[in-house]
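Ticket reopened. Same input as before:
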Amino acid sequence: MTTDHNRLRHADLPTVRQAIRAGQYTAHTAGLGAGYLQANLAVLPSAYALDFMRFCQRNPKPCPLVGVSDTGNPMMTTMGRDIDIRTDVPAYNIYRDGQLARSVTDITDLWTDDMVAFALGCSFTFENALMQAGIPVWHIDNDTTVPMFRSSIDTVPAGPFWGKMVVSMRAVPNPRVDEVREISRRFPLAHGAPVHVGDPAAIGITDPGAPDWGDPAPIPADHVPVFWACGVTPQVALEAASPPLCITHKPGHMLITDIPEDAETPVLPQHTTQTRQPRRA
Amino acid sequence: MTTDHNRLRHADLPTVRQAIRAGQYTAHTAGLGAGYLQANLAVLPSAYALDFMRFCQRNPKPCPLVGVSDTGNPMMTTMGRDIDIRTDVPAYNIYRDGQLARSVTDITDLWTDDMVAFALGCSFTFENALMQAGIPVWHIDNDTTVPMFRSSIDTVPAGPFWGKMVVSMRAVPNPRVDEVREISRRFPLAHGAPVHVGDPAAIGITDPGAPDWGDPAPIPADHVPVFWACGVTPQVALEAASPPLCITHKPGHMLITDIPEDAETPVLPQHTTQTRQPRRA
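Engineering reply: fixed in the latest deploy. New output:
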């Protein structure tokens, strides 16, 4: 039984999470859990964890780290009171030796004591802010996937992780480009300010009408193509590193957290006060 | 021969770094290398690195991670073209099993292939922004050290790293508190917005005139005590973890980086383009 996206669109966060956890909802999460931070997921064997964290630290625009699990603990304790990384993402991609092997809706049987889960911020956050400022986002209005391109911009490598930066493109009305830059810069945990404005060729994109991932989107007259660092970048770096096993979310099928989208940090404030140092002990 | 602080105050960044590297300047770095990001330092054996990175990720206000070295590589490549962590900090504290053993001005003989260096953002950045907005910072005007307190706020633990948050206090004129909050929030890599405004007792500080570190500072009439997460916090967590060896900067004696203070990210942009993928190869 699949729960309908339109019905969950107006549901509260616990209802959405429960539907995902029960396997009743396995589709994309755009527009769900309104107001809460959504995140990309990467699960790796612990031997790769330090280098992957360094890769994220060195490439904060494509890979804004918002949460890291303890080794072997599937509960994402800093991002929610009850987030189980094995069940709370609608769909997962399983990579073996850097190659996509299959997609699943539950990774309970794959999780081991040696796993570390990483959550990375995603573009939903700044897209919501743009729309609230009255700036149209074409791919959302037209229910398509944002166009994404492998750019000529190098990431900063860390251990086995390296590769070109993947960028997403949104066409912005000419007079609003500065405003868009300013708004998105306010969200460093959601890719921040654009990495390039104006000339696709300057960052190695020969045909802006033919994206490497996602759907094509028009660049109307009096609009400028604006490029942001994209959360597909770590996927490219993970393919380069080719760990024996790696699990990511299926694109668009994100982890929905308990963190308000406008929180200053992606960490629940009173979390460990309760578990480690009870105030009323 | 010690180079005078006043002389270096007006020197350019390479001159300052060279004086520090040569051991000619071993004092505090406040006001030096104007416009460039300064950072706290922690050097740890690699077995502690993943947990310490998790601790920083979970406590981004006291521990804003701005750089991490490769294991065994003393060059802080993402933060400067020529930063050698063994020589480019004016003074270091050496901890053995969590206890301060001694202070030195060079750690070349202590660095091994197993070390990882971490750089964390510091308050100099937002203090400069406050002063530029015409908000006086008493301890700077009076050439003392900011008062710091062990608060009752718990950090979020990671592995062996845990402890109370250390906070620094600055008295702010009543009508400017909101402005101060707004300005400092703009610097997430320099402790961000205050963690508390107004009542010292609310965060476990019984006597705001008796700081645990630094010098006392007055709270004049019509001023409000404002508390920020402080970079001494990781030192407390490092003492709790008690690694066999740990090296930090000596408080106030910071690493001066090549990163402009107003950069969006603490990573030099074109860095690896040159070393890994030469454009003109």
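The radius of gyration of chain B is 19 Å. The helical segments of chain B are 5-8, 13-21, 49-58, 124-132, 138-141, 177-185, 233-241, 271-276. Please confirm and we'll close it.
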